[in-house]
Amino acid sequence: MKKNKIILLLALMLAFTIGFSGCGGPQVPADDLPVIATPNVDPSTLERVNVFYAEFPADTTTWVLDDSTEPYVLYYADSLMSDRACNFSVNIGQPFDHAIDQEVLDAFVESYTTANVFITENLSELRLLNGQPVIYTESSLHYTDETIDYALENGIITEELMESLGGREFFLNTPPMDQVTVCPVIDCYLCVFTGTYFDQEQKQAILDAIAIATTDMEVF
To answer: 144 phi and psi, to 5 degrees?
Structure first.
């Protein structure tokens, strides 16, 4: 589990190395945008979780918070002890006073893929979340020598950690991982939710958790 956790955390930290400042004009939400639905849940299962720079509700019977790393990570409880443990986390960007529209989406995807050449973008589109347009992307991340060099140069991993895991071959032999990214504007900040998953059930669980989180999220 320890090695799997490190791989998943590294995937999140790599995904968060996006330098992005949006631009865009007035946005009129389109009625035909795909909707990220908020599931019906038992309110008694929801607790507010603090991720250091934000707080939001989460179903703590489904998700387990790990605050031992930065960013804090929520792990899908049903997969926690397997070699396919999925997770999601959120990164808070700079103050963002632009409406999310196609222009902002295009700029985000260009910045995302330019900064992270090891990430393959599979889908990018606008979706509606809580009645507001959000950035939505699906991608896959694969570890290459370039990925590892980047992580070492930026202090995401150390040579000591890499050697303790079995060296470069450990990362190079890791299968590609699927990721979903959802970016709403909360409290005038662009919030980047990124989840790593291995099957469609896990993907849906992440989207449900993000939808619940953004119904009552506070950015510090």
So the answer is: -130, 175
pTM above 0.90, yes or no: no
Alpha-carbon distance values, 31 to 46, 126, 127 (Å): 30, 11, 10
Q: 184 and 213 in contact (C-beta within 8 Å)? A: no
Contact (CB, 8 A) for 63 and 45 = no
Parallel, antiparallel, or unpaired: how do β-strands 54-59 and 185-186 relate? unpaired
* Residues 68-127: tens digit of each pLDDT: 877 789 999 988 877 677 899 998 887 888 889 998 899 888 887 776 667 888 999 999
**Distance in angstroms (rounded) separating the CA atoms of residues 193 and 88:** 7
Between CA 126 and CA 105 the distance in angstroms is 7
Mean pLDDT by 10 residues, the chain (220 residues): 54 53 47 91 92 94 88 89 84 84 88 73 95 94 82 81 86 85 93 92 96 96
Compute the distance between CA of residue 136 and CA of residue 123 in angstroms, rounded to an integer.
8
How many DSSP H helices and E strands does the chain contain? 6, 12
